[in-house]
Amino acid sequence: MLTLRQDDVLLGCRAEHWRDALDQAAESLHAAGLVAPEYRDGLHAREAQSSTFLGNAIAIPHGTPESREHVRATGVRVLQFPEGIEWHDGQRVHVLVTIAAQSDEHLDILRQLTHVLDQDGIAERLAGAERAAEIAELLSKAVVEARLDADTLCLGFPARDHGELALAGAARLRQAECVDAAFVAAVAETAPRALGRGLWLVASDRGVGVPALALATPAEPLEADGAPVQGVFCLAAQGQAHRGLLERILALLESDAPETLHRLDADALLARLAGESAAARQRLATVLNAHGLHARPAKQLVQVARAQGTAVRVRLAEGGSEAVSAASLTKVINLGARRGQQLIFTAEGETAEAALAAVCQAVEEGLGEHVEPFDAYREPVTAEPENSPALEPLADDVAHPAVAASPGLAIAPAFVLTTPSFDYPARAADPAAERRRLDAALREGGEQLEALIQHARGGEVSQILSMHEEMLGDPELHQAAREGIDEGASAEAAWWEAIDTAAQAQERLADKLLAERAADLRDVGRRVLGILCRVELPEPPDYPYILVTDDIGPSDVARLDTSRVRGLLTARGGATAHSAILARALGIPAVVGAGERILTLASGTELILDGERGRVTPAPAAERRQAAEQRLAERRRREAEAWEARFEPARTRDGHRVEVASNLGNTAHAADAVERGAEGVGLLRTEFVFMAHAEMPGLETQIGEYREALDALDGRPLVARTLDVGGDKPLPYWPVPQESNPFLGLRGIRLALTKPEVLETQLRALLMAAAPSAEPPRDARPLRIMLPMVKDVAEFRAARAILDRLLEELPAGERSDDVQLGVMIEVPSSALLAPTLAAEVDFFSVGTNDLTQYTLAIDRDHPELSAQADGLHPSVLKLIEMTVAAAHAEGKWVGVCGELASDATAVPVLVGLGVDELSVSARQVPLVKARLREFDLDEARDQAALALSQATGEAVRDALEAR
Question: b/e per residue, 506-542, with b = 16+ CB within 10 A?
Fold first, then answer.
């Protein structure tokens, strides 16, 4: 994309003669340090060969190939002549886009400027512009998709002249529903322009719905103005979309095809337009992979292509796409090939046939994935999305539902932050210079992250920013970007293509937690892109506000001034996104996944943001605002009182004991949990120990990690969940088969039992880490081990057998002497079978997040349904009631470790159902303890009975709030 800075534009120039204007243009390049004075002669020599007038009052002077030795750096200067100059070919010129080109960048400028050639009134606007930014805006437009395929070709048309061929091409575009009658009329009024070698061009942007290119060839030889007519291109221009189409025309001009168009069929002609030579051999292969050419199979294809003795290129058979190198991962992924689409591979030379056979065989065998044959008649049909209507603004004084991501209440004006726009050239002439720029930006980005890590508040912030450091240093990202630079891309374009390709691959992952890491990757990418483009985010207001944005990166959250940011509201994202995790860590109320309509809010609009209920209310009425202010004041009072009383035992108002523990994702945070009043750790997610290592952590490594938490707990119980990974949360060193629905596949205890030696090592490490100290007094280290995703007692027994054997093997002094083995209630079957499980397990811990998801069949991160995935739904509560009843009948205890445990409305219901322990995030511990002190056991039982009597989750909340 052509990117012009204001400094590149000179306004109000005057010249008596076109030669004088050309001299001024040469001087502007010299003054900018782009060329030596001798480059002036090259500009004049180029005009002597042919006019550089482009159209619509624009000329693009550039030097001859011989004058390139005088170019010091590639660049552009734009000179405006309001009074105009008569160019030497009789055209009137108001703007010179003067190019200092070290190779053929002038062709790029030609492609980039085509969008202004046929815009009505553009000449007058360029001549009358009073600001440099206005000219830059007129000459720079965004790129959109364009169409060129067999349906836009009109071959062998019985035309009498090139004007009829142009109309035939226009008619073909209208038949393809790319243009309307206004475009056809415009073509009828426009004479085709000669491009050379018998090719002609006519273009218009009137009546264009989809930018496209048609080519019409004559049935019999034709001439126009004494020149042959091999074919007429008809260009439906829109924005800058036709840049790529002009590249196809140039490819055809540079090939041997123009003089032989009449002998080519549609496939051969599309091949020439894609840049393939007549000597290239060709083979087709059908993509069989269920999810198309995503990152993993694309990487396999690239490796096969690189192993061949000749260059292999590939393009989609449909759509007339450009052929790209099959050895470039980013290019292959960007084809976007879906299952069932055909790929056309081409290669040249003696080894071409063998190379094509190898790559096609690899595609047909699935590129490392299990594939099924493709039958178009049996494939599911995907409906085409309809055109989206304009976004309707949010209604005032109405609570709009979204996803609760971080608890708290905020009242403040909105500050609407749009995603920054990065303008940069797509191409660059000096790959070495671009690599140096990229390397410098990567270093600066690393330094910025290091500074943020050093000043980060809270362990979660530092941990996630450290992960960003790892992403920034990913050698595959660097390699992909450098490949793009070597292919002629600018540092900015190559870097963002590498980032976007990797992010899209992550977004296709079935696991929502891992898919949301794409936001982290783009956050890292934007950091480097901002350095390259020198773009800074707008300064937020100096008064308290609620940040409203499409999405927000973790490092953006880390930079937030919590003294002014009262809350976060995003259009996208889920409760498990890192930005949501960090918002919770920083204590900032957050509501996410609210939809694009929130972006219609005006900055300054007052909002009430409820991070507990997942609600946002714009422009509240006075009564609603007053009620929210009372709630906010009450919450602040409660928070202060809760903090002062955080070390008191957790009890209801009448003294009923309910233990309040903390959920941890990192053993290093156990001390912080104790400082906040946690009476133990109710959930240690041990998979983070495994994810932090490039290979399976050994026994000593695991012992050290678990012992750190146990030492900090100082005798308080530790509930450790065994490794919970699988197809939805894979480990790089433990590959699992690809599954169509990994959430219902091989994960949790099911996966662990496929490699019992891994589970045994973890259980051994936990037992040894919890061994009492050798020196008296022998401190107690209560250890509770729970198994994830258990569906019935058979899986529990398999794990119990391993634990029992370890208890016998390990000497009593070298292992825990206070250990229990329980299961998580996450699957409805385990709740329904709770009586048989309770007879053998030592405890239950209810994971309400997954239990709700599986019971209601609603993905809790679904953009439209997530608000309905409420753990207070009566069906979920009935399963918890069954679980508690079965456990208490056997004298066993029950905990709850999901988000429901910290829901102020749900706490008395859970206690009323008989839950013995609530495990919440460390920050929520004081508040949950305070909530327990606000009711007695009988009241809790009444609320539980009331909730169970309702028909829907919404009815439960309404009934409890009305009570």
Answer: bbebbbbeebbbbbbbbbbbbbbbbbbbeeeeeeeee
